[in-house]
TrEMBL record:
Origin superkingdom: Bacteria
One Gene Ontology MF term: ATP-dependent peptidase activity
Name the record gives this protein: AAA+ ATPase domain-containing protein
Domain called AAA+ ATPase: residue spans: 114-262
Stored InterPro entries: AAA+_ATPase, ATPase_AAA_core, Lon_lid, Lon_Prtase, P-loop_NTPase
Organism of provenance: Candidatus Amesbacteria bacterium RIFCSPHIGHO2_12_FULL_48_14
Biological processes, Gene Ontology terms: protein quality control for misfolded or incompletely synthesized proteins
One Pfam family matching this protein: AAA
């Protein structure tokens, strides 16, 4: 065995020794290294080395036992949700109820409590993805978003077998490695938009993911070893439930994300979106003020969508025009009135 070969196998052995792994998975990996050493003596070292190296890299960087502590404070949770979202009281109350049960279980040392899987159903732009991100922030957990829009194979979730060339783990395992925690909030985004050709297979994997009786031993084809997802919090989103399998719906708690009225859009635009966009543009807080009588003109006629996307784009355009005026030296503070509002509205 040459020096380079010895060095490479030594590095893999050290990587394996320093990692926290389940005992039988460690034994499996050690057997793979031993077999690699034997093959190397007969000149077939390079054929399997990269595959073994790739596999060990994945299993040694997964959070088999790493968790993040929850923020078990209802006042903090409510403050985070209220600071990011106006309205949505039913959803906020539902989540505060869940957190209350989680707190009581944590107090008694009960680790078998499973969170209900919320399904946020609503039209585009109604805040489904952002509320999931806020729930994650409120709990103090890591966040994983898995987009289902156009997903064409169940292997995207479950990974490919290592016998396939260029095999990779699925999106679940990849997300867990990025998060570095086995109790993240996992957002299953737009589960109703998978490709028709593979809908049945993908829904089958979803049943395993969402069922607390099964997800404590989720199996990825590439890792080929069960991973415990029972402590993860799953949140799903969909535009509608028409294309969601009945078995999947049975494991979900649907919550309707309502369309916004003009009055709600005005409140959200004034108190949430505008301050955030001013900060993003690196402008001072007092650089831009919009009179109350102007807000209906901003919401209509540009805000006909059920969600907030059009309103957000309109406010972003107003802030950009203001930033341009500041950079050109044409003023430091601007007030938008009914008389000058058209000078600030974006043109598309």
């Amino acid at each position: 065995m040459d020096d380079q070969l010895t060095s490479d196998i030594t590095k893999l052995t050290q990587l394996l020794a320093s990692a926290t792994l389940p005992d039988d998975l460690r034994t499996k990996a050690e057997d793979m290294l031993a077999r690699l050493s034997r093959q190397a003596k007969h000149g077939s070292y390079s054929a399997d080395f990269e595959q073994v190296q790739h596999y060990l890299d994945w299993i040694t960087h997964l959070p088999w036992s790493t968790t993040t502590p929850d923020i078990l404070d209802l006042k903090h949770v409510k403050q985070v949700l209220d600071s990011h979202h106006f309205g949505l009281e039913d959803l906020k109350h539902r989540f505060l109820e869940y957190m209350s049960v989680l707190i009581l279980n944590e107090t008694k040392g009960n680790t078998d409590f499973h969170a209900p899987v919320l399904l946020l159903v609503g039209l585009v732009g109604t805040g489904k993805t952002t509320i999931a991100s806020s729930i994650c922030e409120a709990m103090g957990r890591k966040f994983i978003r898995i987009p289902f829009g156009g997903m064409s194979s169940a292997l995207d979730l479950r990974g490919q077998s290592r016998i396939q060339p260029d095999a990779e783990p699925g999106q679940i395992i990849k997300g867990l490695r990025r998060a570095g925690s086995r109790n993240p909030v996992i957002l299953l985004d737009e589960i109703d938009r998978v490709a028709d050709s593979s809908r049945g297979e993908i829904m089958g994997v979803l049943v395993e993911l969402l069922d607390p009786e099964q997800n404590n031993a989720f199996s990825d084809h590439f890792i080929d070893y069960p991973f415990d997802l029972s402590q993860a919090v799953f949140i799903a989103t969909a535009n509608n439930t028409t294309h969601i399998n009945t078995a999947v719906m049975d494991r979900l708690e649907p919550i309707l994300m309502p369309s916004y009225t003009d009055e709600e859009k005005i409140t959200i635009g004034r108190d949430y979106v505008l301050p955030a966009e001013i900060q993003k543009a690196a402008l001072a807080k007092n650089t831009l003020k919009i009179e109350d009588t102007v807000w209906p003109k901003i919401v209509r006629p540009l805000g006909f969508d059920a969600g907030l996307r059009t309103l957000e784009r309109t406010i972003q355009g107003i802030v950009r025009k203001t930033a341009k005026l500041v950079v050109e030296g044409r003023g430091k503070e601007f007030v938008i009135t009914p008389d000058n509002v058209r000078d600030f509205l974006p043109s598309y």
